[in-house]
Amino acid sequence: MLGELVAESRGKVTGVRVLSIDGMNSKVEASFQGQGTILGKEMTEIGTYIQVSRPGGVAFAEGKNLIQTTEGEIAPWEGFSVARLTGEGFGENSAVAGAFHGASTGLDRLNRAAYVTEFESDAEGNYHYRTWEWLGSNQKQ
User: Fold this and answer.
1) Across-strand partners of 52?
2) Domains assigned to the chain
3) Which of 8, 26, 78, 103 allows an S-S link to 107, with CB 3.0 to 4.6 Å?
4) Distance between the two ends of the chain, CA-based, in angstroms?
5) b/e for 116-131, b at 16 or more Cβ within 10 A?
6) Residues 95, 130 contacting (CB under 8 angstroms)
7) Largest CA distance in the chain
C-alpha cells in the first residue's frame, strides 16, 4: 500500500560521462542536483546514477542520492529505476524504487520503509520527481 507523499524535487542533470560502449549494454553515468521538500522540510540534493541501455527504448539505472535539509539533516538514498526513454536528449519517464539508510534524527522515520518514485526529465536534463512511502500490504502509516 502506498503511504504519504514524502518528497518532491526539481533540478537538473549537471554532468554526464560515458563509462563503456558495448551496444545495448553501454553505460552512462549522470550527476544531478536539485531542490525540493522532504517530510515538509526544504532540502537540496545531489546524486549520481549509472544507466544501462536496453532494447526497445528502455534503460535500467542504479543510483545514490544525498539529501540535506536547510536545518542540516541528511538522508542518504539508494535505489534503481526502469526508464522509458523519450528519444529526446535526456528525456525519460522512470519508475524508481529505493530506500533511505542512515537518515539523521529529524528524518529517521525514512529509515523504516521502502519508497517508490515517479521521475520525469526533459530533453535538456531538467527533472521533477515525487516520492511516496511504500508500506507493504498490511502496514499502517
Assistant:
1) 27, 60
2) 2-134 (2.40.160.20)
3) 103
4) 10
5) bbebebbeebbbebeb
6) no
7) 46
Cell numbers for 21: 560502449
Cell of 52: 544501462
How high is the pLDDT of residue 1? 76
d(C-alpha 128, C-alpha 130), whole Å: 7
Q: What is the pTM of this model?
A: 0.90
Give pLDDT tens digits for 91-133: 899 999 999 999 999 999 999 999 999 999 999 999 999 999 9
Tell me 107's DSSP state.
G
Please name which of 57, 83, 78 lies closest in space to residue 67, comparing C-alpha atoms.
78
- The CA distance from 92 to 59, in Å, is 9
